[in-house]
Amino acid sequence: MHSTEYDSELVKAGASAQGAFGQTAYFLRRYPLGAIGAVIMALFVLAALFADFITAYSPLSTDAALSLAAPSRAHWLGADYMGRDIYSRIVYGARISLAVGLGSTGLGCALGVVVGLVSGYLGGWVDLIAQRVMDILQALPLLVLALVMAAALGPSLWNTIFAISIPLIPAIARVIRSNTLALRELAFVEAAQAIGMSELRIAARHILPNTVAPLIVLATAQLGAAILTEASLSFLGLGIPEPHPSWGRMLSESAAEYIRTAPWLVIFPGLAISLVVFGTNLLGDALRDILDPRERG
Amino acid sequence: MDTHDPMPPVLDVAGLRTMFFTRQGLLRAVDDVSFSVARGEVLAVVGESGCGKSITALSIMRLVPSPPGRIVGGSVTLDGRDLLKLDEAQMRGVRGNEMSMIFQEPMTSLNPVLTVGSQISEAIRLHQDLSRAAAADKAVEMLRRVKIPEPAQRAREFPHQLSGGMRQRAMIAMALACNPKVLIADEPTTALDVTIQAQILELILRLQQDLGTAVILITHDLGVVAETAQRVIVMYAGRKIEEADVGALFAEPLHPYTHGLLASVPRLAIMSGQVQAAQERLQEIPGMVPPLTNLPTGCAFAPRCRFADAQCRAAFPPYTQPRRGHWVACWHSERLYGAGA
Prior knowledge:
The complex is a heterodimer.
Chain A: H1 6-13, H2 19-30, H3 32-49, H4 51-54, H5 86-122, H6 124-139, H7 142-153, H8 157-183, H9 187-194, H10 199-235, H11 247-258, H12 264-290
Helix pairs in contact in A: 2-3, 3-5, 3-12, 5-6, 5-8, 5-10, 6-8, 7-8, 8-10, 9-10, 10-11, 10-12, 11-12
Chain B: E1 9-22, E2 25-38, E3 42-46, H1 53-61, E4 69-78, E5 81-82, H2 88-94, E6 99-102, H3 116-127, H4 132-145, H5 151-155, H6 164-176, E7 182-186, H7 194-211, E8 214-219, H8 222-228, E9 231-236, E10 239-245, H9 246-251, H10 256-263, H11 268-271, H12 310-314, E11 320-323, E12 326-328, H13 335-338
Parallel strand pairs in B: 3-8, 3-9, 6-7, 7-8
Antiparallel strand pairs in B: 1-2, 1-4, 4-5, 9-10, 10-12, 11-12
Helix pairs in contact in B: 3-4, 3-6, 4-6, 6-7
Family (chain A): Belongs to the binding-protein-dependent transport system permease family.
Main location (chain A): membrane
Subcellular location (chain A): Cell membrane
């Protein structure tokens, strides 16, 4: 006997999702991995925002007596060789990671979108020149760029953000350009021309919204990558300068010397980095599915 | 033209030439095409794929993709203004405002990420100084005029939530929102199924009568022509070869190509076997349309024409008017009926 369970099928399809709670419940059921990613990212952002309220110690205050202290009730994740509380430093480090991640992704996206849109929509020699410039940017090794910038301008938050955003520009520009190339051949562009719309307006109002979905997916993936890159740069001493708590620097300070004697110095910052990158990737995948306009009800 | 039509033409196209400069060579997509449309008139442009119908329409709108295309000659006069002499900004003020176009593909002619209403009100706001809210109201009103049920609700929906016929209605609403003098409909019903086709054509005709818009209807469907148009232009290989009132053209085509075209339309009598077996097979025009990059000198139809002779192959025939208001470009149009066919 086949009897279709209409009600349960409808529930599965989200028909009953009403109100904020129902929508959330539907989202959880439909994209469980995306929900995990969203929770991780929410915790990360909340930690960065409310770092002052959820930590008991300053991330910068040292205490010789606590040097390399193991995790305890007072210091949940232990303390480093200068006696600074690891938990506090990780929470405050979230601010740096978030600032670098958002800052460099935002900067890279803004420039990449402009270049990609102009290059793809106008085509011709504009496209040719823009793409060669992108080739040059892509050929610049990130570490060398960051090294030169750190050497010339001194390591700082802004230099780090700028250095990380440079290789993002060609990556974003390529995606936007290829989308634009495909989109500008579609009938709605011709229809927009036929109602008397200017080229610039068509690019901004009709092409750009159609590339937002791939852009957001790419940007979330790049957010994780940017955080990871910041950690690498700081690990090499090219990123955020002392005494600011950067996850990468926390790793680099302790990895070689203390991994055997005080492994918590390495494990917890490493976990923080992995967790956030994992979260951005899960969220990015779910966003890709959700942002497809055909999925919208 | 003579006293044939009483209304002064709102759009007059004279000697229009559009060429594509391609690697394969010079492609004469539209060659010396002239016609005019009066207010409230429906002019059909017929011909098979690649005969230059759509490029004629795009040339009038000045939307020919350039490069490789370019309008190299002629004039397009809309209400006394030569559109080919306007600059791009002035031309944008004409498009969608004084002259609109609807396309063959309703499925892709609307932007998938914007609501239907916002796209229509955007078209209105490009040309009229209306507030956002007023334009949105007008968009809903236009959707109501094109007989979309629940227009206020539909205006908030995305194109993928509408059927093909609905989307074409929305396109018509957008095209007519600024009350243009001329509407160019490029195969507006080709992508729709037959019942919807009839509804859309009826809608275009009714709005055209209400608003007094002149319509240029581009199609390859002779049935559509017979139902809707007052006058017909037949194009072949980038040239106009015949122009007549719709009745005259269907009753007595004067160009061998038009004759062949009409003979190749399936008729109920043939399909139901009421005529002799010898004629049962549908007539066809032998041969192929010559490639536009390599047109023969003289009449392009000559290689497929049973009346063709040296004269046809030497020079393109002049436009003659064997009957009042019925123009044809053929050296031998009298032979069609004279030979006792």
